[in-house]
Design goal:
10 strands
């Protein structure tokens, strides 16, 4: 059993994610337009939300945890902190080294996805900070295991995946996305090197055997467009 996963993302008209690369809107209200994306995200009303490690560290927790003792537990098990919010914030940290200044992001309790090889000393640190965690295989990158544990252990029925492009690409490759909530910013990037909405790091085609059905189109304020798609998955792939 997995949560319903909605990939909620805002991109330029050429499908890029780096907001500082986008052209200014004609009315000069760039921050207001990005605020529309956040407001739509709240409308999705999911049990949890998530974005990638780079995005989290850049915006919230830039420091790295250091320990001289890297010994893992022999039999690691998920940990649920004593006090958690109604909505959860999920972060994948395969390096097991984020230094947290808080146990919440925007008021929502953190749940960390870790490798089974995470140092016992780091797990103790997370428990002292009041941060929940679970495991996703030996490398911490098995998203299927992570999502199953979120559903069965933490009771998460729905999750909003909010990028960046690398984590979106990983979920796409794992065939875990049920719906795409795509907010189009009325501007252009134009750079070939910018991160795309789905930026898979790996071999092969991560979208193979998956197709989209348009559910709705809505014109928002100041030229922003909100598209919703349902994912269909060919089980033969």
């Amino acid at each position: 059993m997995y949560p319903q996963i909605i990939c909620h993302v805002m991109g330029s008209v050429d499908g890029r994610l780096l907001t500082d690369h986008w052209t200014e809107p004609f009315n000069g209200k760039k921050n207001e337009l990005i605020g529309i994306y956040a407001a739509i995200g709240r409308k999705l009303n999911t049990d949890a939300w998530m974005f990638g490690k780079h995005t989290l560290c850049e915006g919230y927790f830039p420091k790295t945890f250091h320990t001289g003792d890297s010994t893992p537990l022999a039999h690691p098990v998920p940990y649920i902190a004593g006090s958690t919010s109604e909505r959860l914030f999920v972060i994948a940290d395969p390096d097991a080294n984020i230094l947290y200044e808080s146990s919440t992001v925007r008021g929502d309790s953190i749940v960390v996805i870790l490798p089974e090889t995470a140092p016992a000393f780091y797990l103790e640190y997370l428990q002292k900070k009041g941060i929940s965690y679970l495991f996703a295989g030996t490398k911490g990158d098995n998203l299927n295991i992570a999502m199953q544990t979120l559903a069965e252990t933490f009771g998460v029925e729905s999750l909003s995946l909010q990028g960046g492009g690398i984590i979106d690409g990983a979920f796409l490759q794992a065939r875990l996305i049920d719906e795409l909530s795509l907010v189009i910013y009325p501007g252009i990037d134009g750079s070939a090197n910018s991160t795309s909405i789905f930026h898979y790091i790996g071999k092969g085609n991560p979208s193979q055997g998956q197709s989209l059905e348009l559910l709705s189109v809505q014109t928002m304020e100041n030229g922003v467009i909100w598209l919703r798609y349902k994912f269909h998955k060919n089980l033969s792939h």
